Amino acid sequence: MRNRRYAAAGAVVAAVLVVSGCGSGQASSPQDGTVQPAGNGSPAAPGYSGGYGDGGSDSTEQAGRSTDRGGPAGVLTLREDAELGEVVADDKGWTLYRFDKDSADPPASNCDGDCAAAWPPVPADDAGAASGMDPELLGSVERSDGSTQLTLGGRPVYRYAKDTEPGDTKGHGVGGTWSALAADGKKAGQDGGAADEPAGNGDAAPARLSLADDPGLGEIVVDAQGRTLYRFDKDSAWPMKTNCLGECLKTWKPAKPVDKNRIEGIDPKLITTFTRPDGTEQLSIDCRLLYWFTGDTAPGDTNGHGVGGVWHAVTKDGKKAK
User: Fold this and answer.
1) What is the pLDDT at residue 208?
2) Bridge partners for 236 per DSSP
3) Res 151: pLDDT
4) What is the pTM of this model?
5) Is the dihedral angle over the CA atoms 61, 63, 64, 69 positive or is it negative?
6) Cα→Cα distances 213→149, 169, 232, Å
7) How many CB atoms lie within 10 A of CB 314?
8) Which one, of 94, 91, 75, lies nearest residue 160 by Cα?
9) pLDDT tens profile 173-224
10) Rounded-to-integer distance, Cα 243 and Cα 248, Å
């Protein structure tokens, strides 16, 4: 009788685990076809806020930072970001951004009022092209208040009030409409900025997650830049939990979420996202968190496979490569 009660209790636990998916060491995002970009909070107004301007001392502090970064850009710089590739910054190193709801042809800004407080427009005066950037891409647009704003490739240029120091890219992905700028005015992180796809054109766009045939490991998962993605034995898949924190993150970078419509060779049902302790979102396959390795210097490298006996390239079903 006691054994039967134990068996029944085990069945109930198993049923709960099946229903709960990957579990909830930290919350996983809903599976709705496209994932929410990192940094997308509850906006004060659609499309731009990401939680900015919600009152209290933080708003006052951020407003001060916004004013501090409202000046001309000077001679632009190109900076290599570990996750986004080459991004455009001003002469002090602040990341510059573009807004999907603006227009490039003809140039027009749709960010005013509270939006402009969160995303200070960059004045057009005294701006110069960075070395390696086409100066013909720089221009200006007149704003609703009569001021002139810098444009790059026809796109109005902004800074982000919540970037706290030069080199920050906290604005990238906010609201799904803000992106760091690539040198040609397109979105950073899209194969070097080469893609600037219209909404809904996922079928024609390059894959953001696909498979590569490695001579030693067989088929393994790679990101849009051809970087091998890895899993960590010390992470937990059930419930999902990361054990790569602090110093670990200097070597192993969490893979960013991808649009499920831009996956090749991998079952979209296996793709989920995980909210890390710092609030950013991380990609996973079959509840296994994915990372790329800073020791891989070229697309196709698999230098991270076998490191410490706990890091492994990943197959299309989230398992360890052979």
Assistant:
1) 78
2) 241
3) 96
4) 0.45
5) positive
6) 47, 33, 21
7) 27
8) 94
9) 998 889 999 999 999 987 533 334 333 333 334 457 999 999 999 999 998 8
10) 9
Rounded (10°) CA dihedral 146, 148, 154, 155: -90
Q: What is the DSSP string of 188-246?
A: TTSTTTT--PPTT-GGGSPPSEEEEEETTTEEEEEETT--B-EEETTSEETTEE----T
* Residue pair 52/60 in contact by the 8 Å Cβ criterion: no
- Where residue 6 falls among pLDDT bands split at 50, 70, 90? very low
Both structure tokens of 80: 């290599």
Q: Is 164 a residue whose pLDDT tops 50? A: yes
Which residue ranges make up each domain of the chain? 56-180, 202-313
Q: How far is CA 179 from CA 37, 189, 259, 261, in A?
A: 11, 9, 15, 20
Sign, CA torsion 269/271/275/276: positive
Q: Which residues contact 13 (CB under 8 A, 6 or more apart)?
A: none
CA distances from 231 to 66, 188, 226, 246 (A): 39, 25, 16, 17
- Reported as a single tens digit per residue, the pLDDT across 236-290 is 998 999 999 999 999 999 998 888 888 999 999 999 999 998 888 899 999 999 9
Q: How many CB atoms lie within 10 A of CB 12?
A: 9
C-alpha span between 154 and 235 (Å, rounded): 44
- Would you say 29 and 36 are in contact if contact means Cβ atoms under 8 Å apart? yes
Distance between CA atoms of 52 and 297, rounded to whole angstroms? 37
Longest dimension (CA), the chain: 84
3-state secondary structure at position 153: coil
Question: What would the two tokens of residue 175 be?
Answer: 């609201």
Least confident of 4-8, 24-28, 138-142, 222-226: 4-8
Quote the CA–CA distance of 125 and 72 in Å, as a whole number.
Answer: 6
Structure tokens at 299: 């697309």
Report how far residue 283's alpha carbon sits from residue 173's, in angstroms, rounded to the nearest whole number: 15
